[in-house]
Specification:
alpha/beta; two-stranded parallel sheet; globular
């Protein structure tokens, strides 16, 4: 085994999805338990949202703080990545948790269409979120829903609004946005390497496309994202019983390509993050 592959587990989304799969963790304690199982299975990044008591997403720093405290206690070394996504608030609310100094935070650098709405990321908001991440020493994960987002991220590194090397995630399979297409995927990977040679990259496949994107990333030298936020099933007939089950499936895909799942120390080294504790 060589060329370690980082596994990011997106443990819960920003939509009230528990009715679709009861394994989706909603409360802070459920999220900590689910993440711990996924961490033991081989995940080294946890992509996190938090929710209100009614299940709606929020950017409440107190809730994020409680989650981070539990994850650091039960998953020492885990890379904590908080979401600044648009379903958790508007405007500067979306970055309210950044002073907590997680290891990483997601950053969409442009707008795109979602199934029923526009995922709006105005230039002013993107610049503000980027500046807050820089201020609090939080590494951004660029969520590229479109090819233009890769060019925009590279431009922001060039003019100093973002500090490289970046970690870029291609998001494919969202209805009305970037489809799952092998040629498009390879072009996005080549473009990232050309514009930002030192950047690391991964991809998120939505729904049934999750395992496909895991396979493509492992094959072409990228990193992987899995988890119940993006996909509820192990296969077309079987609901995933846990985030850990999806991580184990991802580990198997990685190993079929002659690679190994990165340890948390390897993941931190690859991403240029400080060693926790």
């Amino acid at each position: 085994m060589h060329d370690p592959c980082i596994i990011c587990v997106a443990i819960t989304g920003s939509l009230p999805q528990k009715s679709n799969n009861p394994a989706v963790p909603i409360t802070i304690s459920e999220q900590i338990e689910s993440t711990h199982e996924a961490f033991e299975a081989g995940a080294t990044i946890a992509h996190c949202h938090v929710r209100n008591s009614d299940g709606t997403a929020t950017s409440d720093p107190e809730k994020f703080g409680s989650l981070m405290e539990g994850l650091r206690e039960h998953c020492p070394g885990l890379i904590i990545q908080l979401s600044t996504g648009g379903r958790s608030g508007t405007g500067h609310e979306r970055g309210a948790m950044l002073p907590l100094q997680p290891d990483m935070a997601s950053l969409a650098v442009g707008s795109s269409n979602f199934p029923t709405r526009v995922y709006e990321n105005s230039p002013d908001l993107v610049d503000w979120l980027a500046s807050e991440m820089d201020k609090h020493d939080v590494k951004p994960e660029i969520e590229a829903f479109d090819l233009s987002h890769i060019y925009q991220a590279a431009s922001m590194v060039e003019d100093g609004r973002l500090k490289g090397p970046l970690h870029v995630q291609f998001v494919m399979g969202v209805k009305n946005a970037m489809p799952v297409d092998r040629e498009a995927f390879e072009f996005m990977a080549r473009t990232t390497r050309r514009l930002m040679p030192e950047a690391t990259w991964c991809a998120a496949g939505i729904g049934r496309h999750q395992a496909t994107l895991n396979d493509w990333c492992a094959e072409l030298g990228g990193h992987c994202r899995t988890g119940l936020e993006d996909n509820m099933r192990l296969d077309k007939d079987t609901l995933a019983p846990s985030n850990a089950a999806l991580v184990r499936q991802c580990v198997g895909i990685i190993e079929r390509h002659g690679r190994s799942a990165a340890t948390w120390r390897q993941a931190r080294e690859i991403l240029g993050l400080r060693i926790a504790g």
